Amino acid sequence: MRIQALRCHVIHCQNGPRLNVIPLLASRAQALRYLYMRWGMELSSVVVFVGESGDTDYEGLLGGVHKTVILKGVGSGSRKLHANRNYPLEHVVSFDSPNVVETEVGNIRTSLGKLGVLM
C-alpha cells in the first residue's frame, strides 16, 4: 500500500483471515465509494454489517445498492456514542427494502440467506 502511495488504515479482523482497508480520514460510506470509483468494485455484491447503535456513521451505510445487516443489541455497550438518538430507527431505515435486514447476532447466516448472499 505504501509503495502505491495509498494512505489507509489496515485492520485485521479478529476471528478471520481478512483485512479491512479503510482510506485515511474516511468514513465507511466514503470507503465504499472509493472502492467503487477507484477499483470498479460491484457494490451490489457487498454486505455491510452495522450495529443498532454506537456507530457514528451507520446512517450513511443504510441506503444504497449494497446489502446491509443491522445487528440488534450490538453497539449498546458501555461505549455508547450515538445510542441516545431522539428518533426511532424506523425513521432512518426502510425495513421494506430488500437490501436491509435486521437480525440478532446468532442469526447472521439466515439473514445472509434472506439477502440472497448465501444459498
Automatic annotation (TrEMBL):
It holds the Pfam family S6PP. Keywords: Glycosyltransferase, Transferase. One of its GO terms (molecular function) is glycosyltransferase activity. The keyword Glycosyltransferase applies. It comes from the Eukaryota. Residues 4-63 form the Sucrose phosphatase-like domain. This is Sucrose-phosphate synthase. It comes from Parasponia andersonii (Sponia andersonii).
